[in-house]
Structures are given as structure tokens and as C-alpha cells.
Amino acid sequence: MSPDVTKYPYLKQDLAASLVVFLVALPLCVGVAVASGVPAELGLVTGIVGGLVTGLLPGSSLQVSGPAAGLTVLVFEAVREFGLPTLGAIVLAAGVLQLAMGALRLGRYFRAISVSVVEGMLAGIGLVIIAGQVYAAAGLRAPASGVDKIVGVPGALAGAVTSPTTLTSVSVGVGTIAVLVLWRRLPERVRVVPGALAAVALATLVTWAFHLPVATVHVQGLLDAVHVPGADAFGALVSPAALGTVVAFALIASAESLFSAAAVDRLHDGERTRYDKELMAQGAGNTVSGALGALPMTAVIVRSSANVQAGARTKASRVLHGVWLLLFAALLPAALELIPLPALAGVLVHAGWKLIPFRQVVSLWRDQRGEALVLVVTAVAIVVVNMFEGVLLGLALSVVKTAWEASHIKLEVMDKGAGPIRAYLSGNATFLRLPKILDSLEALPKDRPIELDLSGLHHLDHACRTALETWVERHSATGVDPVRITAP
Fold this sequence. Notes:
By secondary structure, this protein is an alpha/beta fold. It has two domains: 3-400, no CATH class; 409-486, Transcription Regulator spoIIAA (2-Layer Sandwich), CATH 3.30.750.24.
């Protein structure tokens, strides 16, 4: 056995898997960049950094990082508000924040974020992506707000019917989605080619062969697209709005990456994710990506699951996928100019649809309606307001829901008809349930002695303690025997 094979026993498996991941990542990198309002090459730059930088670092050995559809909406808003030069500074600052959180060992705490909030975030993003890409497929300019995007979709589609050029563009997008949906039903030997690549390739071939009047990707060259942020870009970070965007990038990218890591760990039997190291790996990738003026990155479950299913065994597969992206961007950039924009819009509409957890909502509504409410409110808030504030609202609602459930308290009244009435409180007595506690106690007979047993309480906060003491004083002042209390 040769020394190289001994040193890299899984090179064959990892090489094959890297090619599959490259073919999956290529159309997604370009599509996410175009949907984010930045040059297509910057999506490839982020994919390359995700492979060559994040891919080399420890954390999760099999998950793959790159530009993600989940951040498209936030990136588009950031570019619109602060400009493309400042985007790199924002991404770099978010990466440094991720590095700091990883160094402080905060990675494991992201697992404590409510899954309903994360799924609600993805659902809201999915809705905005779908609505926005309908306009892109029609060759129209999308409205700024999420609500306007969704409300205007019927009008945009109706207008497409009256314009042959617009109808052609929409048809290319719809055809791309149809290929993506039907691709999963084809024989396994055909599905060796990733569906997204096949759909975009077919759309490109049809557009070129029939000279269809649809817009294609604009290419300016890899080096021309890269812009290192200058002093002005970093100076813009002092504004509260820019700092809020930095925090949003860091928190949302971290949460999506670490949730993806947990999902990928369930797909294989290899080494488990080290969350703090993975958070630092993502931070390093975003720092480099920001320094090149490119898009923010996260771990992407689509590419990661493709990596595992293709037989990857080590991190070499994700590093090699970055090498193939680099070679493509360096040697074949003109090939991007053939890709029709409606095809990329179709890929993203399909990706946005998969972000909406329809089955989870139905299941949660049957079993845990509170969690379903958190999911739906988060999604709606993202559409109506924006992603950062929508996620904050979801987190706040999740905390309130948990506090309400944790404050469960039970009052048992035992009255034998003679002698004192025994009131037994058990559970957690917090201010959230104070009205219920007082209503029950004040309903007890005022002319009978009371024994208040608090020994079953696990927690008694200050508000409840004060209210109980006040009730005891009032009841004892009615002329009956003083209330006897058994302390918790």
C-alpha cells in the first residue's frame, strides 16, 4: 500500500463526494448572490472561503459552508441601506463577533434556542424569498417590504400574461421549478446529477437554443468583483442600524450553522460536532469573506446532507469542493453569462418553499399549540417588519411561553366540614399566576380558620410572598383564628 493511501484512506470517497457538493453548491452560490443584489461572483467567493477556510478548521467534519438562502433577505436589505462596500465590513465584524462567542464557549448555548423560533425564522425567510423571486422570474423590480412583495404577486403574475417577453421569462422559471420537483422521482442513476444543476443546465440550454429573450447573469470577473472594505466602510459601522445588522448576521448565521450541525450529526456515525470550535470556524470564514467584500456564510444543510449521502468520510470533501469552485470561477467565469436569471429565481423559489415547515406546523398545532404560535408569529413578524426584529419577537414570545408554563401552580382545598380548611399549594408560585392564586384564596370562607400549606412549592417569588402575607393579614383580621402557615 502506498504511503499516500495510508495517510488518506478515504481519499476516493471524499473526492467523489466533493464533486457532488460542488455541483450542488455552484447554482446555489450564484443564485443566492443574484437574489442578494450583489455580483454573482461574490457568491462563489463565499463558497470558496467556506471550503478552503472554514472547511479546514475543526468543528463539524462533514457539514459544508457557503452563502445561504436563509440570509438572502437580510443581505439584500443591508446592501440597499448601507451599500455594497459596507457589506464586507458588516460581514467581517459579524465574523469577529462569532470568533469572540466561540472563544467564550457560547456555541453550546445556541442549542438552547427554541426550535420553533428557528423554524419560524426560516419560514418567514422562505415566504419573502418566494415572493421576491416571483418578480425576478418575471423580470420585474420587487417592492421593498415583505408585505408589499406578497400582496403584489397576483398583479405581477397577471401582468405577465399580457406581455410575451415577461411570459417567456416566467415560463423559464416555472420550468426550472418543475424539473426540480420531478427530478426526485427519476431513477437513482439519473439523480446522480444534482437536481439544481440539472434544472439550471436545462434552462440554460433551452434559452440558448431557442434564443429566448430572458435576462442572464451579468459577469464582471472574479478579481473585479472582490473589493476589500476601506476606512469609510468600517466608519459606517458606528451607526446603530449597522451595528444591529452585524449582531443579526452573527446570531442568525450562528444559530443556523449550529442547528445544521446538529442535523448533520444525525445523518452519520462519525465524529460529533464540537460546537464552540464550529462557531469559531464559521467566524473565521465570515471574517475572511468580509475582508474580500463577499457574502456572509453559514453551514448549509442542503450541501451538508448531499456531502454525507455522497459518502464523504472526512473534511477533505468540503475542502476539495472549495477547490473546484475556485477553479470554475478562475477558468470558466464566462459560463455564468449563459445562465438565465429566471432559472436561478426558480431554484430559489424551490429552496424557499423547502424552508417552510408545513408538516411541523400541523404537528405542533395538534400537540403543542404554544410552540406552533411561536413559529407562526415569528414568521409573520419577519414578513411584516424585518428579520432581526421578527426573530427578537419570536425569542421574547418563546421566553414568555416558557415562563408561563414553568409557573404552573395547583391549589388543593380540603374541607372536612368541621375544623380548619386546609389549602395546599404546589408547583411554582410566580407573579404570572398571582391573580389565579389570590382568586382561589379569596374565595375561601372568611368565617372559618385556614391552614395554608406551602410545603409543596418549588419556588415562591417576592411578589407572591408579599401577596400571600397581605391575604393572611386580611383573613386573620376577620375575627377567626389566625391563618396557620406551613413554610415551603
